[in-house]
Structures are given as structure tokens and as C-alpha cells.
Design goal:
With 369 residues, the protein is α+β, with helices and mostly antiparallel strands. The protein contains ten helices and 14 strands. It folds into three domains: 3-71 and 180-289 and 350-357, Jelly Rolls (Sandwich), CATH 2.60.120; 79-174, no CATH class; 297-339, no CATH class. The strands form four sheets. It has a six-stranded antiparallel beta sheet with strand order 1-12-9-14-7-4, with helices on one face. A four-stranded antiparallel beta sheet has the order 8-13-10-11. A two-stranded antiparallel sheet has the order 2-3. It binds 2-oxoglutaric acid. 2-oxoglutaric acid binds next to strand 7, strand 13 and strand 14. InterPro entries: Alkb, AlkB-like, AlkB-like_sf.
Length: 369
């Protein structure tokens, strides 16, 4: 049996899913990536129900998955906030290190391109041997992360010490803004659910830092442990929007076999206490999983479909065309898309993840957690 056929049979039969003896984190990660990412491969159908029931049955202690936690309206609001409001100073993005930082962020210029075809270029701060100036529509797609709350130094994998002389190139009064209130409120609601299921005391939690991850359909996130937060027990609260993904969650030992969990749009995933330092990663964004509610207007979708490549996008085209037909039958669809097109079209190729952490240990807790 070939590798692909083997994985497919594993996914279709829970008894055959990787076991401790068989696979380290790396090898399971590789199987998901290899089997599904190669454009020239035929993409096997994933048996969602089996994968989902497998994840639920084997959930680690310290992991809580709140399905459909966010309403569609909340997800749309968060998408707008992530793409525009939060995507600018004082929050740093991956592009700020190399490219000119726009105080109002890239969204206004991207929006002018999207709605009026006004072209503009994002310039490098200084010449770079590999990078070059880029058109705004490409630059916007290259935003990979936005830092919320306490500023994080990605090179040293540590939160900046305000008293350090080695601060990022932003005015010092902009460092360490609070996590946006809209997100803090959602985190509070999610933690109420944790509180009702465990003896974690949510009122001591502080949303101190966060990351917004912007994934394209081929992006992945390597297995990693979150070790930068001094508080190693408080929950990490994570919201998913747009395309679904497979999240692999292992143990604190990279050699242990991780479990695959499907995170869908609107889900809230929480790791706390015993799971807080577990290895986790995203080997796969699942194409054809964007809920219909997030699609743009019919004209925009038609133009988008025409812009796709019949070979490279052969596994997405049939579903997009099917969805287009469904939308054509929905009366007044375009009227409900007012001001949504730019966000909806972005989500046709994306997943957003917002995850929030407490960095410093809480003062008082009911239990060790
Ligand atoms: O995208 C996700 O769901 C996981 C994100 C994550 O693990 C991280 O940002 O450290």
C-alpha cells in the first residue's frame, strides 16, 4: 500500500490512527503535509466525522474545544478588526521589520487597490539581499502575524523587557498596548466555560498578549511549545475563523504521537494547566471548508473564479462553482454583502487565528491551575 493510501485508511478507521509506537510528532506532521499539500496529488477525501470523533475521544487533559463558540456576526466583526483595526501600530506585524511602517496600517491602501484599482508599492526600509519593494495587494497577503498586547521579540523568542535597551524600532510609548477590549471580552466568556468544567478560577486571568495568525491555504505552522510565558498554567485561548485546519496536539515530549483535531470557523480551542506546554502545530489548512456565510458578492466570486488556474486550483474549482450556484439561488445575497466583499474575498484563501495568553503568573488562584 502506498503512503497516501495508508494515511487515508488511517483516517477512515480510528483504530488505525497513528499510535505512540508508530509516530513522533514530526512523522505525523509530515504525513498530513505530504499527502494533502502537493498540488499535483489527488487530494483524498477526509472523513471528517471519524477524525472529529477521534479527536474528541482522545482529548488530552487540559484541552477544551468549544465548538461554534463565535457567532457568524462575531466572526465577521473579528475578521474586519484583524484585517484593519488591529493590523497597525501599536501592534507590530511581520512586515514592520523590513518594510516601511504605515501608521494607519496597510488596509486603507489595500482597500483603494481593491475597490478602485489604485496601485501602490510598499517600500523596503533599506535594501535587502532577498526582499524587494512589493505591490500593495501582494504585501497585504504577506502579513503573516500581528502581535497584540505585550510586544514580543520573535528573534529571541521572548517578550520585550520595557527597561531593556534593545527595544523594537517603534516609539517606546507604543510598546505594550493592552489586548483589544473586544477580544478580552470574548476570552472572558470562553474562560467562564473553562471555569464551569474545571477548578480554574477565571477572574484571576489577564489577557496580556496575543498573536493573530494569517494563514494562506498552503501555510503551515511547525510543531512548537509555547515557552515564552512565565505563567505556564494559565489558559491559552484561541479562536479560529475562515477555512478549517488540522491542529496536531502532542505532549511535552516531541517523540509522542500527537492527536489531530479539526478546528472549524467559530471554534474556540483552549490549552491550560497540564496541556499548556504541549507541542502543537498546524500542518494543514483544509481547502473547500469556508462556510458560505463568509463568501463575497456574486460578481466578485465570479471574477475570482475566473482568475484561478485550472490546473493548480483544480481541487478548489468544482466546490467554488457549486457554491456560486447556491448563492445565485439565495434571494438578495448581494444586498447582504454590503462592505463585506474585501473581507470575504480575502477569506476565500485564508484562515485567521487569534490566540491570547497570560504572560505573568496570576497573583491568586483557587488551585494550582
Ligand atoms: O493557528 C492555530 O490554531 C495555532 C496557533 C499557534 O499555535 C500559535 O500561534 O502559537
Amino acid at each position: 500500500m502506498g503512503r497516501k493510501a495508508k494515511l487515508l485508511s488511517k483516517l477512515q478507521n480510528p483504530d488505525n490512527l497513528p499510535t505512540k509506537e508508530q509516530s513522533s510528532f514530526r512523522s505525523v506532521e509530515r504525513e498530513f503535509k505530504k499527502t494533502y499539500v502537493n498540488e499535483n496529488d489527488k487530494i483524498p477525501q477526509i472523513n471528517y466525522e471519524i477524525l472529529q470523533s477521534y479527536s474528541e475521544a482522545t482529548m488530552h487533559p487540559g484541552i477544551i474545544l468549544l465548538k461554534n463558540f463565535l457567532s457568524i456576526e462575531q466572526q465577521k466583526e473579528l475578521t474586519k478588526l484583524c484585517m484593519n483595526d488591529f493590523n497597525k501600530l501599536p501592534n507590530l506585524t511581520n512586515l514592520d521589520k523590513y518594510y516601511e511602517t504605515h501608521p494607519e496600517g496597510l488596509f486603507p491602501t489595500y482597500s483603494q487597490y481593491y475597490y478602485s484599482n489604485r496601485k501602490s508599492i510598499l517600500k523596503l526600509k533599506k535594501p535587502h539581499e532577498k526582499l524587494k519593494d512589493i505591490e500593495i495587494q501582494k504585501a497585504f497577503r504577506q502579513i503573516r502575524w500581528v502581535n497584540l498586547g505585550l510586544s514580543y521579540d520573535w528573534s529571541n523568542k521572548a517578550y520585550y523587557d520595557k527597561n531593556s535597551t534593545d527595544l523594537p524600532e517603534i516609539p517606546s510609548h507604543l510598546i505594550d498596548p493592552p489586548v483589544p477590549e473586544y477580544i478580552q471580552k470574548l476570552v472572558e466568556q470562553a474562560l467562564k466555560a473553562v471555569e464551569s468544567q474545571t477548578d480554574y478560577l477565571a477572574k484571576n486571568y489577564k489577557s496580556e498578549a496575543g498573536i493573530i495568525n494569517f494563514y494562506g491555504l498552503k501555510d503551515t505552522l511547525m510543531a512548537h511549545q509555547d515557552r515564552s510565558e512565565q505563567d505556564s498554567l494559565s489558559p491559552l485561548v484561541s479562536f479560529s475563523i475562515g477555512h478549517s485546519c488540522i491542529l496536531l496536539v502532542g505532549t511535552e515530549d516531541r517523540k509522542d504521537t500527537p492527536i489531530p483535531i479539526i478546528l472549524e470557523s467559530g471554534d474556540c480551542f483552549i490549552m491550560y494547566g497540564p496541556a499548556r506546554r504541549c507541542f502543537h502545530g498546524v500542518p494543514r489548512i483544509l481547502e473547500n471548508t469556508l462556510p458560505l456565510e463568509f463568501y463575497p458578492s456574486i460578481d466578485r466570486l465570479e471574477t475570482y473564479i475566473q482568475s484561478l488556474d485550472p490546473v493548480n486550483d483544480m481541487f478548489r474549482l468544482p466546490k467554488l462553482k457549486e457554491d456560486l450556484e447556491l448563492l445565485r439561488m439565495k434571494e438578495g445575497w448581494n444586498q447582504t454583502r454590503k462592505d463585506w466583499d474585501i473581507f470575504g474575498e480575502y477569506l476565500l484563501e485564508s484562515r485567521l487565528n487569534i490566540n491570547i495568553r497570560q504572560v505573568n503568573p496570576a497573583v491568586q488562584k483557587k488551585t494550582e491551575i
